[in-house]
Design goal:
The protein has helices at 3-43, 55-59, 72-82, 88-92, 96-139, 143-153, 207-232, 266-270, 279-285, and strands at residues 163-171, 174-181, 190-194, 200-204, 237-247, 254-265, 289-293, 297-299. The protein starts with a helix and ends in a 12-residue tail after the last strand. The protein is of the alpha+beta class. 22% of the residues are buried.
């Protein structure tokens, strides 16, 4: 191999190494971003602004009568037939009967269009009346209407890093969100960070830190559930019970057990800076209850102490 060929080969190898390093640095940066986004989602589900539904305005709207069927298109088609006068050219070609038949067929098609237009108007009015009645039922705190409102407007189902299940209990006038939060095993076991070299550093997360992340995730999900219930439903107060899988010492099995109770109001949540608040400290400030230590993590609480019997 001559000197020029060797130099060209060295340049290609050097270029390939540069590309490989850039790809490695890009992959490392992406891994760190994904890890940080996951942690933010775990501990920051409460850092949102949930728009409040205005049921009162919609419920106050008047119901509309169903519209009568109109024959606009059919009448226009009949007029076209009645006014038809074959031209000299049409008579010469003896097409007047064919044209007349086409005009008669057009009446049938116009009648169908009138039917379709009437159906669309009726459907629009029925949908509007249904929305008004639904709003009235929500304001009356009918349980099935409240559940339907949550299903239509809640984004809690879109929080895979915070919530795994949701139910609603009604005890008298009390509304209680029973939320299945993440389990400890759902919390990352490894952290990803960038070294000065740009490479990714993957380290095991100490168990105490994982317990802290689990606590923040459960508390954040509880506040987020409270925010959505109070924004979607015409309530001044809501209660939240968070569940998580824990070891049941009596049976030795892993069971979903209550680990947090929170009762809060719209006024209390408006008084805090959700964007800056740490979840566990916020729950404690709002008067929430949970039993947690850095050594053992969550321990189950007794919801009966708050007048709640879980199914």
């Amino acid at each position: 191999m001559d000197r020029n060929a060797k130099q060209a080969q060295r340049r290609r190898l050097a270029y390939q190494k540069v590309l490989e390093r850039e790809a490695m640095l890009e992959a490392a940066g992406e891994a760190v971003r994904e890890y940080e986004e996951m942690i933010d989602a775990l501990v920051g589900a409460h850092r949102v602004s949930v728009p409040r539904q205005n049921w009162a305005t919609k419920a106050a709207l008047p119901l509309s009568a169903l519209p009568a069927r109109a024959s606009t298109a059919e009448n226009e088609a009949k007029t076209a037939l009645a006014n038809y006068r074959p031209s000299w050219f049409t008579k010469v070609l003896k097409r007047q009967e064919k044209v007349r038949q086409l005009l008669e067929d057009a009446i049938d098609r116009a009648r169908v269009r009138d039917d379709q237009a009437h159906f669309a108007r009726v459907q629009e009015v029925e949908d509007r009346n249904a929305d008004i009645r639904r709003a009235q039922r929500v304001l009356a705190l009918e349980q099935d209407a409240l559940i339907e409102a949550l299903e239509d407007h809640s984004s809690l189902d879109d929080l895979p890093f915070s919530i795994e299940g949701l139910d609603t209990l009604f005890i008298g006038t009390r509304v209680i969100a029973v939320v299945e939060g993440l389990d400890l095993e759902d919390i990352p076991a490894e952290s990803v960070s960038l070294l000065k070299s740009g490479k990714a550093s993957v380290k095991a997360i100490p168990v105490g830190r994982r317990y802290e992340l689990h606590r923040e995730a459960i508390c954040s999900a509880a506040v987020r559930a409270a925010l959505e219930y109070l924004a979607i439903l015409p309530l001044d107060e809501v209660e939240v019970v968070m569940l998580a899988d824990l070891l049941d010492r009596a049976s030795g099995h892993i069971l979903a057990q209550p680990v947090l109770y929170l009762r809060t109001t719209s006024q209390a949540l408006r008084a805090v800076n959700l964007e800056r608040a740490e979840a566990a400290a916020l729950v404690e400030r709002l008067g929430g209850h949970f039993d947690w230590t850095k050594r053992d993590g969550f321990r189950p609480i007794n919801p009966a102490a708050f007048g709640i019997e879980l199914p």
